[in-house]
Amino acid sequence: MQSDISLRCLQSLDHHNGSGLATHGLRNRALVGLGLSSAIGYLAWRRGSLSESGALGAILTGTFTTSAGSYTHAAMLVGFFAGSTVLPKLVRPHDSDRFDAIAAKGGRRDLWQVLANGGVATVLVIAPKSSAMDLGYLAALAAVNGDTWATEIGKTSQVPPRHVLTGKQLEPGISGGISLRGTLGSIAGGAFVGAIAAAGRSFEPRFTAKPSTLLATGAVAGGLGSLVDSILGATVQERRWCPQCRMYTERLEHTCGTATRIVGGVPGVSNDVVNLGCSLAGAAIGMLIGRYLSDESRLPAVEYWRPFQRYPPPA
Ligand SMILES: [Zn+2]
């Protein structure tokens, strides 16, 4: 009975096509999405890269994305997740203990971290289907993926990062710092998500923009999204200080066991809030590109935004 209700709930999400065939496809995608995200969530939890709540978040976002979107949407989400799990193990930062002492939560991602990174994309895939929404989804994921790659690849930089606004040298690992390697990493990370969308065109008629457009949208959203992340990190993100180790950190309780205190930024604006800003910036970039490229830009905004309505309306 309950699965019946959830299926009907998902059917209402499949607003782009009400035919029996589409419902059949929806049921398959819902099952594949639930199975795949449960398997990934479980493995990530076992390996310690997700907490219990983080695994729950991965299952929720994975199932909704695959059901309401397409297998290409799911593949992009998996690509983001796989990259951010594998990359920290591939790159060899010159001082990994130091980065770990600064990072807010270490390696184990919780529900808030999952939602901060994938929440905006999930909302966009549930929104009425359009090429602007699809590019918004692509760019929202490209932005957070770009930021993740920038952080990891930036750690290998031998040159100290510079403050994104003042250009002053910063200690490595502090939010708001940028480096050449990190910036190239952010563009590559964004393009990676675009490349998955482009590859998906061979299997599904979903991301209909040209492959070069998908790739470019990903790269731009990755670069600019990370830039927004760095600016927010340098300005509003709360900065904490461990009086024991005399170092900046994002942790409430430092790795040494000492309680940290706020010494700058806006209290409550955590790394999760900044990541949310990064993905919102990416989504905005993607939707602007999508609207600019498509005929939808000529439609009245009210019509275009009306939720759950088929568009264009039946003649
Ligand atoms: Zn400490």
Would you summarize the structure shown here?
Helix content is 62%, strand content 5%.
Features:
mainly alpha; two-stranded antiparallel ribbon; 315 residues; 3-stranded antiparallel β-sheet; binds zinc ion; 5% strand; disordered N terminus
Radius of gyration: 20 Å
Instruction: Output the strand order for the largest sheet.
Output: 4-3-5
Distance between the termini: 37 Å
Give the fraction of residues assigned to helices. Answer: 55-70%
Helix-strand sequence: HHHHHHHEEHHEEEHH
Report on this model:
- With 315 residues, the chain is mostly helical.
- The chain has one domain (70-305).
- The chain is 62% helix and 5% strand.
- It has helices at 2-11, 20-47, 52-68, 71-90, 96-102, 111-126, 131-154, 180-200, 211-235, 271-293, 301-305; strands at residues 162-163, 177-178, 239-242, 247-249, 261-264.
- The strands form 2 sheets. The chain has a 3-stranded antiparallel sheet, with no helix packed on it.
- α7 crosses α10.
- It is globular, with a radius of gyration of 20 Å.
- The protein starts with a helix and ends in a 10-residue tail after the last helix.
- Bound molecules: zinc ion.
- Zinc ion is lined by residues 242, 244-245, 254, 256, 258.
